[in-house]
Amino acid sequence: MRRDVDVAIVGGGQAGLVTAYHLRRLGIEHVVLDEQREPGGAWQATWPSLRLFSPAAYSSLHGWPMPPHPDTFPPVDHVIAYLRAYEEHYDLAVERPVTVRDVRAAPDGLTVVTDRGDVRARHVVSATGTWSAPFVPLVEGQASFAGRQLHSAHYRGPADFAGQRVAVVGGGNSGVQITADLLGTAERVSLVSARRLRFLPDDVDGRHLFDRATARQHAVDPETMEAEFVGNIVALPRVREARAQGALRVRAMFDRIVPDGAVIGRDLLELDAIIWCTGYRPALRHLRSLRLRTSDGHPEVVDNRAVRDPRVSFVGYGDWTGPASATLIGVGRTAKRLAAQLSQELGTAA
Ligand SMILES: Cc1cc2nc3c(=O)[nH]c(=O)nc-3n(C[C@H](O)[C@H](O)[C@H](O)COP(=O)(O)OP(=O)(O)OC[C@H]3O[C@@H](n4cnc5c(N)ncnc54)[C@H](O)[C@@H]3O)c2cc1C
């Protein structure tokens, strides 16, 4: 593994790979440090029935398109195969498995502390995503629940819930997709949400969201594709089926959790399991020594650079790093812009 580089990229999911692609094009020396054993980033940890919300042509990283898939909305193993092929095609400098434990500031650079020794870098790009930092809200009585609780990040399919009474909490895309996935296997599935479901029109999917985000970018509208995607449900075929069966009727959020279920108003909803589909936070533990966090839950950034230490930048994560930057098609824009900046600063402009 290289011990002295211009740029160390932490994370080898789609954000890390497309950043490496742009740095490579500009001749900037770099290494990608990824803690997974295999390529594919967080996609390796999703449930098998997960489908992309856009066709392959709208799910490509810069440079090399995702091959088409016979189904309109490709399954997750197609995404993983694509990321592996992308990495190999460009012979990207990915080291794995390497876990970055810390990043320390020194006057003449940054020390990236890993489980395989230190790497010195002039600049660190953090591309660690959100999937390893699932968020679960606090609900009274939660610890007393006798059944199983898990976050959607750890959901692996319906088989584990055969014959069980399950509450799926969260009225976004994960919540409705997992509810649909459990139908026919679980004894009962209750979709619980603090707000009403908001479906996008049935003929609108990730393609249209991306086009709208692109149009808005020019108008400097703060709303992004992610904001729309998070707040609105893409009516994928299985979701439509579940809705037609009446399985997506929402129950109000729990007032409290008790050992054998949850109380909603005057009702006791008896439960064997609760699946929290309540979102994620940026996975930034490796940067804690730099004390970059602000009260928003993520570092203050200007042009993707940490205000408190501009030698650290961020790609992926969510709209705070660029429009649609937590999507396959959107992340390349952020990566390209950052690579151009670094090329100027590090003196390697082609
Ligand atoms: C349910 C769901 C459905 C989605 N569907 C779509 C979709 O249809 N289309 C779309 O475009 N997007 C979709 N997304 C969003 C998005 O594409 C993913 O969140 C994507 O995985 C983000 O990629 P990333 O590279 O930023 O992060 P990740 O894929 O999480 O990659 C980060 C990598 O960094 C590694 N890492 C983390 N910490 C460290 C460390 N300290 N040291 C070393 N390595 C580390 C991780 O192990 C991982 O390999 C979906 C998201 C969710 C939750």
Give the DSSP E fraction (strand runs of 2 or more residues): 15-25%
SS content category: alpha/beta
User: Biggest sheet, in brief?
Assistant: 7 strands, mixed
CATH topology of the largest domain: FAD/NAD(P)-binding domain
Q: What general form does the structure show?
A: globular
- So, the CATH homologous superfamily of the largest domain? FAD/NAD(P)-binding domain
Radius of gyration: 21 Å
- Give the overall average pLDDT: 90
Q: Which small molecules are bound?
A: flavin-adenine dinucleotide
Helical proportion?
A: 10-25%
What's the β-strand tally?
A: 17
SSE order: EHEHEEEEEEHEHHHEEEEEEEEH
Assembly type of the shown chains? single chain
Name of the CATH first level of the largest domain: Alpha Beta
Describe this protein's structure.
- It is a single chain.
- The protein has helices at 14-25, 76-89, 173-182, 206-219, 225-231, 237-244, 331-346, and strands at 4-10, 30-33, 94-95, 100-106, 109-114, 117-126, 148-151, 165-169, 188-192, 250-251, 256-258, 261-264, 267-270, 273-276, 301-302, 305-306, 312-314.
- By secondary structure, it is of the alpha/beta class.
- It folds into 2 domains: 4-132 and 280-346, FAD/NAD(P)-binding domain; 142-198 and 233-276, FAD/NAD(P)-binding domain, CATH 3.50.50.60.
- The strands form 4 sheets. Strands 1, 2, 3, 4, 5, 6 and 17 form a 7-stranded mixed beta sheet that branches. It has a 5-stranded parallel beta sheet with strand order 7-14-8-9-10, with helices on one face. Strands 11-12-13 form a 3-stranded antiparallel beta sheet, with no helix packed on it.
- It binds flavin-adenine dinucleotide.
- The site of flavin-adenine dinucleotide has 34 residues, from helix 1.
